[in-house]
Amino acid sequence: MNQIGLVYDRIRWEEKMLIDASKRLGLGLKIVDSKEICFDTLEDPAKIEEIFGNVVLQRCISYFRGLHITAILENFGLHVINPFNVSLLCGNKLFTTLALIKAGVPVPRTLIAFTDSSALKALEVLGYPAVLKPVIGSWGRLVALIRDKNSAQALIESREEMQNSLMQIYYLQEYVKRPPRDIRTLTIGEEVVAAAYRYSAEGDWRTNVARGGRTEPCPITSEIEDLAIRASRAVGGGVLAVDCMESPEGIVIHEVNNTPEFRGLFSATKVDIPEKIIEYAIKVMKR
Amino acid sequence: MAILLMFIFVFRNIYKEKLSFLLSMDKGAKAFKLKCPECDADIEVPEDVISGEIVSCPDCGLDLEVKMDEGGLVSLKPAEIEGEDWGE
């Protein structure tokens, strides 16, 4: 059965827009609340397809929930946007960085350490200021700008107190000397459909729209286009938000997001992103 | 930090028990008239609401998820608390 599905755990603005776009295109979208799902791994694949459709937009806000649902749906033979391997790479900042480096895409210098003492050593190599990020997480949550050794020690000590093994992975990055903005691009398949500058909110150095950052349209230069597409390919492609920074040496890619939020990008560019995503799902269906 | 985590854990479990709070509705109006399961305040939810959307209680500020069953019965339940893996 040729039908598109959307699996969610929270209907945000983006999901509403995707539902609206599918209505405009005359498609019946199968909308499934991930919190209500109970999978039997021995279920008849036809029944799973009846519930989800054969191409599924995975839009869960919880990364692990989305990743596991993707694994199950793919195992039943459904196409998921984005595929499991893409979700796996993009959900973890280190895995993304490694895939980008392998593909020759410029990234900020990144060091990894697994204990408090090795994290401090890594910071000596990187120099201050530096940036500490959780490998899994979004919206700039717990992303810290470390200005000196004293604040590094305090931050690392507080991380050691956290009973979370992911917090014992120290993903440390150089602080890129960029303007007070970064660039969010949205790639769909082999196309960069929109790009916007994201400016930090007053009193914050992070540019995330979730942190109150504002957006303005950004021209899709050939450099941005080339790197965003190469970054998208490096993680396996699909519908992705590729975030770039303007370093003194040129564009560097610092993040690729698997279930992009595009409200800020839409308001800055007026590009009909939801419609383009639905059209891409139709293309995937016809493959 | 440990105290904070414990507080979040307890808070989450309290709300798990309230998950299936069903509330009254008035389908004839342009909005569903519901009540906050936390503070009993009146909450109006637009008729074109989509199951899974989040509304905030105007009185106590609690985030509530709108649930609509197959028969069109609308209810509110406390929304999930943001997890460490939440994001894009």
Core attributes:
heterodimer; A: 287 residues; alpha+beta; five-stranded antiparallel sheet; four-stranded parallel sheet; 38% helix; globular; B: 88 residues; three-stranded antiparallel sheet; two-stranded antiparallel ribbon; 1 helix
Q: How would you summarize what this structure contains?
A:
Chain A is α+β, with helices and mostly antiparallel strands and 287 residues long.
Report on this structure.
The complex is a heterodimer of chains A (287) and B (88). Chain A is an alpha+beta fold and 287 residues long. In chain A, 38% of the residues lie in helices and 24% in strands. Chain A has helices at 13-24, 45-52, 63-75, 84-90, 93-102, 116-126, 149-161, 222-235, 263-269, 273-286, and strands spanning 4-8, 30-33, 55-58, 79-81, 110-113, 130-133, 144-146, 170-174, 181-188, 191-199, 214-217, 239-247, 250-257. In chain A, the strands form 3 sheets. Chain A has a 5-stranded antiparallel β-sheet, with helices on both faces. A 4-stranded parallel β-sheet of chain A has the order 2-1-3-4, with helices on both faces. Chain A has a 4-stranded antiparallel β-sheet with strand order 5-8-6-7, with helices on both faces. Chain A is globular, with a radius of gyration of 20 Å. Chain B is an alpha+beta fold. Helices cover 17% and strands 27% of the residues of chain B. Chain B is built from 1 helix and 5 strands. Chain B has one helix at 2-16, and strands at residues 31-35, 42-46, 54-56, 63-68, 74-78. In chain B, strands 3-4-5 form a 3-stranded antiparallel β-sheet, with no helix packed on it. Chain B has a two-stranded antiparallel sheet with strand order 1-2. In chain B, strand 3 and strand 4 (63-68) form a beta hairpin. Chain A binds chain B through residues 8-11, 15-16, 19, 31, 33, 35, 61-65, 91, 134, 136-139, 141, 158, 161-164, 166, 241, 257-261, and chain B through 1-2, 5, 50-54, 65, 79-80, 83-88.
